[in-house]
């Protein structure tokens, strides 16, 4: 009996020793990178009510296909795989686990869903999986993560830029705010209120709404009563039209200044003539711009996704994220690891590649773009009224 | 300001009431809580949208065809889903699950056929504002209010003076007794489902101007409609109208005077308080079991 016990004990010690020594061997090669390929994953809402957002993934896919056709980057082709998470957190978590542990991806490109990304970020940071996203959430960007990057301006930064523009260029004296009680709504509010407080301006009215609201008659009345000359719309192209048409109905005509999510022809379709005069920023170039990067994007996206509309900001965001990943991959050289990619990304300063404007990363900065250009709806068309406005410091 | 809030509240309240009418009709006749009611309304509104987009289809033709398709969808649900369940002895809880599944199915199919982007539904009834005094109501909101009241009258006459209507009332009170009296229950069920879906389709066509057209358009409306119906008494048509109008008013006034982001919270709090005092709603019949 005693001999058996000692036998087991020796066995356990030997097993422990082997297990402790293993990691030294396992970390030898970079996950997701082979001699001639790099594996990149993307969780997208391929089905379900938010499936329109999967255009981001499709934009990234078009970029990678184009690059592969030209021979890849540093002798490696990029294998891009998408997984359906239906924009639901539980599925995003499952998709990310699958990507990292089963498919063994090198990086994730094109994440958009705030709740999903935040649920998986500790995990991807721990596993050193790079994420180049289209995220605008403050939770993700401030303070910055090590491996989490975004090519899209933060909602907070949008708030900062918009507040200054409203006061300086729109001549706003009495400001009303209509906002969605959600994470992006509150992040944008933080940015707006920071500037207003610094400049001694107090908004005359704030009206919030939730996803349970069917119509906005009480919000419109509340705002009208306060007599603002400018109303900032922190709402998307699906909700703003309802306020715009209600305002028109009750004869309320301030200058409406909407966030970037309003900058789409769909706003005009839904709001009709109530959208006339609405000012809104954009983080991307004009869809019909003749910049060479834009022409290249339009050509490739129409080639690989002929049924989709290339003149849409969503695939442009995906393309931008993918192109940023590609640039970092090029700069990192043949001997690529997640940390080398981070170094490469941090070397990107004022880069006009991607469809981003002067993309800049740094050890303390993971939001690549801090600039917006201004547009306005004039005679049923969205036209640019101000070229890119950039800010440097955010806190 | 107050009066304008009241008008807007009544307008949205009548939208909830119109949506709830069909749901209550099904509940009274077959004791099925039809969670998919809104989705069917959305589906038929999409059908109308496709028809209106097709060449050579006049507006009234598209609307009529959409309503007709609603009737057939209603027949289909009763024949293919509810009747087999009823035969197998389903209880109210089972029906809830069935309709929830149906809800997900319709939303998925609608998204698959028409995509998930948001569309503007062509304006069948003008949204031109009507101004009186310092107040304003949009034409289609006024029409919704009028149609809802008109339907209430029509339904009252239907249930009081037609054989089918009386048969429905009898069945909802006592199914076995009705069968013994020779009422062709299966036919009446079909009629109820067909009518209810047509009511839902009407609601969808009027609501779409507020919500815009996309697969998820009806859910917030349906939840409010149910809440308003519960407030007013789920088995009483006048109760449904009263409850929904009250809910619309409460939302509008709470939103204006207390808090815009908490207006739903306060409205539902109000409903909870009322239900504590009158558990079957303001005008609902009391659940009295004679021992």
Report on this structure:
The complex is a heterodimer of chains A (395) and B (291). With 395 residues, chain A is of the alpha/beta class. Chain A is built from 13 helices and twelve strands. Chain A has two domains: 37-153 and 287-364, Rossmann fold; 156-282 and 374-390, Rossmann fold (3-Layer(aba) Sandwich). In chain A, 43% of the residues lie in helices and 17% in strands. Residues 23-28 of chain A have low confidence and may be disordered. With 291 residues, chain B is mostly helical. In chain B, 74% of the residues lie in helices and 3% in strands. Chain B is built from eleven helices and two strands. The mean pLDDT of chain B is 89. Classes of the chains: A alpha/beta (395), B mainly alpha (291). The A-B interface holds A 47-52, 181, 207-215, 217-219, 221-222, 225, 237-238, 241-242, 245, 249-251, 266, 269-270, 272 and B 1, 4-5, 8-9, 11-12, 15, 107, 111, 116-120, 127, 129, 136, 138, 210-212, 214-216, 220-221, 223-224, 251-256, 260-261, 263-264.
Summarize this structure briefly.
Chain A is globular, with a radius of gyration of 24 Å.
The helix tally of chain A amounts to: 13
Distance between the termini of chain B: 53 Å
The largest sheet of chain A, given as strand count, sense and whether it forms a barrel, is: 5 strands, parallel
- Strand order, sheet with most strands of chain A: 2-1-3-4-5
Strand proportion of chain B: under 5%
Number of strands of chain B: 2
């Amino acid at each position: 009996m005693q001999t058996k016990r000692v036998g087991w004990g020796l066995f356990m010690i030997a097993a422990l020793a082997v297990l402790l020594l293993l990691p030294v061997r396992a970390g030898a090669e970079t996950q997701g990178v082979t001699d001639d390929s790099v594996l990149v994953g993307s969780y997208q809402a391929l089905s379900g009510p938010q499936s329109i957002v999967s255009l981001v993934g499709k934009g990234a896919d078009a970029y990678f296909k184009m690059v592969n056709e030209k021979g890849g980057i540093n002798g490696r082709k990029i294998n891009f795989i998408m997984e359906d998470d239906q924009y639901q957190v539980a599925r995003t978590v499952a998709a990310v686990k699958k990507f990292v542990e089963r498919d063994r991806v090198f990086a994730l490109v094109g994440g958009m869903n705030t709740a999903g990304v935040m649920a998986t970020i500790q995990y991807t940071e721990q596993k050193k999986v790079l994420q180049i996203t289209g995220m605008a959430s403050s939770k993700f960007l401030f303070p910055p993560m090590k491996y989490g990057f975004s090519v899209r301006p933060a909602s907070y930064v949008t708030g900062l830029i918009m507040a200054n523009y409203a006061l300086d260029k729109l001549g706003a004296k009495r400001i009303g705010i209509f906002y969605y009680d959600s994470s992006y709504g509150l992040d944008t509010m933080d940015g707006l209120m920071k500037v207003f407080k610094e400049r001694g301006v107090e908004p005359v009215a704030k009206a919030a709404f939730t996803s349970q609201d069917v119509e906005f008659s009480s919000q419109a009345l509340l705002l009208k009563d306060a007599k603002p000359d400018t109303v900032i719309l922190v709402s998307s192209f699906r909700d703003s039209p309802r306020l715009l048409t209600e305002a028109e109905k009750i004869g309320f005509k301030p200058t409406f200044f909407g966030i970037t999510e309003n900058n789409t022809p769909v706003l005009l379709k839904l709001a009709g003539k109530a959208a006339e005069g609405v000012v809104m920023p954009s983080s991307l170039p004009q869809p019909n711009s003749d910049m060479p990067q834009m022409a290249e994007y339009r050509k490739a996206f129409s080639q690989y996704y002929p049924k989709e509309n290339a003149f849409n900001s969503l695939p442009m965001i995906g393309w931008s994220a993918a192109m940023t990943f590609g640039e970092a991959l090029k700069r990192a050289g043949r001997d690529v690891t997640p940390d080398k990619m981070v170094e490469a990304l941090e070397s990107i300063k004022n880069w006009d590649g991607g469809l981003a404007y002067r993309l800049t990363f740094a050890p303390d900065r993971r939001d690549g773009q801090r600039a917006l250009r201004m547009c306005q709806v004039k005679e049923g068309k969205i036209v640019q009224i101000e070229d890119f406005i950039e800010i440097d410091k955010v806190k | 300001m107050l009066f304008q809030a009241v008008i807007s509240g009544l307008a949205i309240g009548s939208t909830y009431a119109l949506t709830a009418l069909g749901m209550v009709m099904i509940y009274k006749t077959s004791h099925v809580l039809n969670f998919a009611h809104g989705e069917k309304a959305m589906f038929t509104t999409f059908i109308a949208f496709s028809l209106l987009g097709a060449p050579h289809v006049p507006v009234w033709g598209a609307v009529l065809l959409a309503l007709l398709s609603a009737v057939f969808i209603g027949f289909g649900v009763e024949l293919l889903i509810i009747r087999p369940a009823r035969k197998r002895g389903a209880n109210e809880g089972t029906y809830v699950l069935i309709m929830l599944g149906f809800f997900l199915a319709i939303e998925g199919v609608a998204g698959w056929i028409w995509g998930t982007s948001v569309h503007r539904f062509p304006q069948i009834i003008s949204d031109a504002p009507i101004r009186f005094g310092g107040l304003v109501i949009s034409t289609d909101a006024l029409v919704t209010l009028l149609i809802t009241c008109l339907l209430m009258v029509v339904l009252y006459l239907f249930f009081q003076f037609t054989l089918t209507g009386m048969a429905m009332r009898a069945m909802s009170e006592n199914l076995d007794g009705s069968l013994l009296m020779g009422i062709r229950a299966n036919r009446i069920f079909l009629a109820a489902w067909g009518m209810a879906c047509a009511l839902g389709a009407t609601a969808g066509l009027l609501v779409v101007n507020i919500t815009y057209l996309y697969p998820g358009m009806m859910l917030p409306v349906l939840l409010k409609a149910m809440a308003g119906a519960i407030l007013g008494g789920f088995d009483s048509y006048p109760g449904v109208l009263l409850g929904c109008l009250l809910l619309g008013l409460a939302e509008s006034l709470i939103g204006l005077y207390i808090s815009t982001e908490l207006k739903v919270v306060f409205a539902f709090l109000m409903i909870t308080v009322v239900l504590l005092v009158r558990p079957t709603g303001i005008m609902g019949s009391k659940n009295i079991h004679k021992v």
